[in-house]
Design goal:
Blueprint lengths: L11 H9 L13 H13 L8 H7 L23 H15 L20 E2 L2 E2 L3 H11 L3 H4 L3 H8 L5 H7 L13 H5 L9 H8 L3 H22 L10 H32 L2 H20 L6 H13 L10 H12 L4 H8 L3 H20 L11 H30 L4 H8 L1 H4 L3
Antiparallel strand pairs: 1-2
Length: 430
């Protein structure tokens, strides 16, 4: 991932308060996991934040219409107005995610990503999945992909949406005066252009044989997009178990999509000569340079925060011996999962309480598993493909572990207790 690192260990409290949990009521959704988990979570989620700092401003300004998510013109009329794609992503997903939440009256939701975008948009998980795979594999930019993790799993367990709010996303599209986009529209939100064939062709100037292989790769890329789309929910998931199941389906579809383009990508790149491969690989550096040219200069404060983030990523760093990290951890523990409230509200016995603790700890461990310090992206698309797949597989395993813990927790709960558990998320931050 390109770009500078933003807030890390010393800014973990700000991460929680200003990025993930924006107001006091919503701050009851706290984080635990120990100082190491906090440090890794902060570092992993604040990479590149300095170049994304204007995303939330664009979201608050509501500069984009929900019509921008229509499949006919997925970026809307404003496609060319913003050079930073992450600002546009934040605006589009926020418009869609918040239009069905609390009547669209809230300027932001606690489950948003650090760049201002949303991984859960109504009943849809990862609306720009195909775009993110294309960007990560072809351009070496995993910024959006890296933001998916603990927060999305957490939002699957404690969904912010009430049942009636989710129903608005699955209502018939023909309804007049529609303000909330349909799940189908959201699942089609990836760019219909698919693989950037024209840019690749302009870079490598392929001969006839290479052009045929490029067309085959483009067809496989489009088929992969269609495969991801098949994992779009036809009905809004009503329970945490169903939401985690949807996450698994979407992740599995993305992994299968990567497998489907592996051979065509290898065939195309194998036909290129050394000079052509160098020009193809240069597309990634060109993208980084273009994005950097539109970013404001870092202030001294930003530079200091970057230095703190760099220190937290050193091999010899141990946050257990960092007093500031310990204090921040204690503050986060006070805002951790409402375990006692859940236990008392649902009238849990000792066995159920123990299972709830396992669910909590299993989920919180994903904060460290899915938030790691950065590594330089591989130099070629063919080498980046398995790295992206490995990341998705890690997240899939994390979702599976949490699902198992949730199943154990709910195994002996009554229907009334399960209903009470599902009501916790929508009530928080109300």
């Amino acid at each position: 991932m390109s770009g500078r690192m933003g807030l890390a260990l010393a800014g973990a409290t700000l991460v929680i308060a200003a990025v993930l949990l924006p107001n006091k009521a919503e701050a009851q959704f706290g984080l635990r996991g120990g100082p190491l988990g906090v440090a890794r979570f902060a570092v992993g989620h604040m990479l590149g934040l300095s170049r994304l700092r204007h995303s939330r401003m664009a979201v608050r300004g509501s500069r984009y219409r929900s019509a921008a998510l229509r499949s006919q013109d997925l970026r809307g009329a404003e496609r060319g107005q913003l050079s930073n794609p992450y600002v546009l992503r934040a605006a589009l997903t926020a418009q869609a995610a918040l239009s069905g939440w609390h009547g669209g009256r809230r300027p932001q939701g606690w489950w948003r990503h650090p760049d201002g975008s949303y991984g859960w948009v109504g009943p849809v998980f990862w609306p720009f999945a195909h775009d993110d795979l294309t960007t990560a594999i072809m351009f070496g930019d995993t910024t959006s992909l890296s933001f998916y993790g603990y927060g999305d799993i957490y939002a699957a367990i404690f969904s912010p949406y009430a049942a009636t709010e989710l129903a608005a996303y699955t209502a018939p599209q023909s309804r007049r005066g529609r303000r909330v986009p349909t799940a189908e529209t959201l699942c089609e939100a990836s760019d219909t252009g698919g693989l950037p064939v024209d840019r690749i062709a302009a870079a490598v100037t392929p001969n006839e044989l290479q052009r045929t292989a490029l067309d085959e790769l483009a067809s496989a890329w489009n088929a992969a997009r269609d495969a991801i789309h098949t994992a779009c929910p036809e009905q809004a998931p009503a329970t945490a178990s169903e939401r985690l199941g949807l996450m698994r389906e979407r992740l599995e579809a993305m992994i299968k999509a990567i497998d489907a383009v592996d051979a065509p990508l290898a065939k195309f790149t194998g036909l290129l000569n050394d000079d052509q491969r160098a020009r193809l690989n240069a597309l990634a550096s060109d993208r980084r340079a273009a994005l950097a040219s539109h970013q404001p200069k870092d202030s001294q404060k930003d530079a200091a925060r970057d230095a703190q983030a760099t220190a937290a990523c050193r091999p010899d760093y141990d946050p257990r011996y960092d007093e500031k990290a310990q204090r921040q951890y204690e503050q986060l523990v006070q805002q951790q999962w409402p375990a006692n409230d859940i236990a008392s509200t649902l009238h849990l016995d000792e066995v159920a309480r123990a299972r709830l603790e396992v669910l909590q700890d299993t989920t919180l461990r994903t904060m460290q598993t899915l938030s790691a310090c950065p590594t330089e992206p591989a130099a070629t698309p063919q080498a980046r493909l398995p790295a992206v797949k490995a990341r998705l597989q890690t997240m899939l395993q994390a979702v599976g572990d949490v699902t198992d813990a949730l199943d154990d927790f709910e195994a002996d709960l009554s229907d009334e207790q399960k209903a009470g558990f599902e009501a916790i998320g929508p009530k928080r931050g109300a």
